[in-house]
Amino acid sequence: MDRTKSDGRTAATAPSSERPTLKTIAFMTGLGITTVSRALKDAPDISSETKERVRLVARQIGYQPNRAGVRLRTGKTNVISLILSLEEEIMGLTSPMVVGISEVLAATQYHLVVTPYRTQGNALDPVRYVLETGAADGVIISRTEPKDPRVALMMERNFPFVTHGRTEMGLAHPYHDFDNERFAYEAVRKLVERGRKRIMLLQPPPYLTFYLHMRAGFEKGIRDFGATVVPFNGVDIDHSLAEIRAAAEALFDAPGAPDGIVSGSGSGAIALIAALEAKGLRLGQDIDLVSKEPHVLLQWLRPEVMTMREDIRLAGRELAKAVLARIEGRPPEELQTLSYPIPTGEV
HTH lacI-type domain spans which residues (predicted)? Predict the structure, then answer.
């Protein structure tokens, strides 16, 4: 018999403080629990209309699968672990990367867990944690080294992963990378076209793979376009903005100061601009600057700066697609992509 609450609602429709379950979705859609479960898993024998109806209700009621139960039944966690250094947060890379990854995972059963670490610590620790505890089904790592121990460990364990950046280990693994060599080469070309001949580079830390790529493009541009390198090796993009500014001010005071700058970091470019202006130099007149940046803010704020954008949101999407494909067993050689600099004014 239908029991009525004091507010007129039946017991069947009364709200519950309990966590929504598959049974809740089944009740609200009029479908069987098995059908609901298979719809959420994107089973091929369930119609697209049914899947969309089930997903809509699941979103509306805030349904989340019980990860412990899923793991007991399938051996999977439905978790992707994104392991990021705090330096990436400082450079403004974390948010767009997370957005890109989340856009891809939204259509799957997977959830994203972000694990931060400091480069002063052991970068292997968060990877070991995932491997030893089974905390995720796949891992995304960044800031790769030419001989990266994290890559070696995950390949040894045959664990699905993808890297934001390449390695030089002679091992085929999934990656997405930005063409830093092309960025640096084109940056030198732009400066020489402006009449600049003495050019400095604010570069990545030498232990990272993309340092090798950026440095190779920079030096090739110097040779091809007949410019001269002004050494700037005391700091890199991982140093604080105050340290970069102080080193640049000292360089601008020295004989043979640069008249052109290539910056491998948008935030680093801000410190360089502060330094040159503190020394009475006029950006776009006395000295020119080309910078890589993940957003368009630098170019909006200082249109004198020539920028080339690295699309970090795109990188997030590519990384997510690659790690999911690797979990499904696709060969790593098919999961290697490269993106290219987007000049100022292009989208």
Answer: 20-74
What are the distances in angstroms from CA 17 to CA 4, 14, 282? 18, 10, 63
Residue 11 clears pLDDT 50, i.e. is over it: no
At residue 216, the pLDDT reads 98
CATH topology of domain 180-309: Rossmann fold (3.40.50)
In the chain, the percentage of residues whose pLDDT exceeds 70 is: 88
Instruction: Kindly report the pTM of this predicted structure.
Output: 0.78
User: Could you give the C-alpha distances from 142 to 123, 182, 291, in angstroms and in order?
Assistant: 10, 20, 21
Which region holds residue 243: left if phi is over 0, alpha if psi is between -120 and 50, else beta?
alpha
Contacts of 137 (CB under 8 A, 6+ apart): 76, 77, 78, 79, 80, 110, 160, 327
Helix runs in the chain, H state only: 22-29, 33-40, 48-61, 67-74, 86-90, 94-105, 124-133, 149-156, 180-193, 209-225, 241-253, 266-278, 297-301, 312-327
Distance CA(178)–CA(144), nearest Å, equals: 12
Concatenate the DSSP letters of all residues of 112-164 into one string: EEEEEE-TTS-THHHHHHHHHHT--SEEEEES--TT-HHHHHHHHTT--EEEE
Domain ranges of the chain: 16-59, 75-173+312-341, 180-309
- How far is C-alpha 4 from the chain's CA centre? 53
Q: Which CATH number fits domain 75-173+312-341: 3.40.50.10140, 3.40.50.2300, 3.40.640.10, 3.40.50.261?
A: 3.40.50.2300
Q: What is the pLDDT of residues 307-333, one digit of tens each?
A: 999 999 999 999 999 999 999 999 999
Give the contacts of 329 (CB within 8 A, at least 6 positions apart): none
